[in-house]
Design brief:
Layout: E1 2-6, H1 12-19, E2 28-31, E3 45-49, H2 51-62, H3 65-81, E4 85-91, H4 102-121, E5 124-129, E6 132-138
Parallel strand pairs: 1-4, 1-5, 2-3, 3-4
Antiparallel strand pairs: 5-6
């Protein structure tokens, strides 16, 4: 599993496309910005973009950051067992001003915890800022 994170509009999608040469290989791209449901995986390389949006959906279902984290962790554990390459792309929303709205604070907390779980589970973690990648974790299989 590969986790790619960074700020909004910092080039994560472009970087993943170039890194995996997606214009040359069969792959499946799913954006949680467009659809809330997890698709059936049909390719050997699956990109799940906008995982922070998926965390928000889980928070809306459970109403607690801990509940959202538990559901996310169940999905994450399943994705780890997949016999394919899974690339998770998530926008970092944990920096900056803390939201005044309680739900948005819970969303920020849940996203941060889920990103920590994702980074721990991933074989590779890259941060993308201004289109430049920095590998912060890489485990050889």
């Amino acid at each position: 599993m590969h986790f790619v994170t960074g700020g909004a509009f910092n080039g994560k999608r472009k970087w993943v496309t170039a890194f995996y040469e997606l214009n040359k290989i069969k792959h499946q791209w799913h954006s949680f910005y467009d659809k809330k449901e997890i698709p059936d995986f049909t390719a050997d390389l699956v990109v799940l973009e906008g995982i922070e949006r998926y965390v928000r959906v889980l928070l809306e279902q459970t109403e607690t950051p801990a509940g959202a984290r538990t559901l996310f962790k169940e999905k994450l554990d399943g994705w780890q067992r997949e016999d394919r390459t899974i690339v998770l792309i998530g926008t970092d929303i944990t920096k900056g001003i803390v939201p005044m709205n309680a739900f948005d604070r819970h969303f920020r907390d849940a996203a941060g915890w889920c990103f920590q779980d994702t980074a721990k589970a991933a074989d590779r973690v890259d941060t993308i800022w201004y289109g430049i990648a920095e590998t912060i974790k890489e485990e050889k299989k």
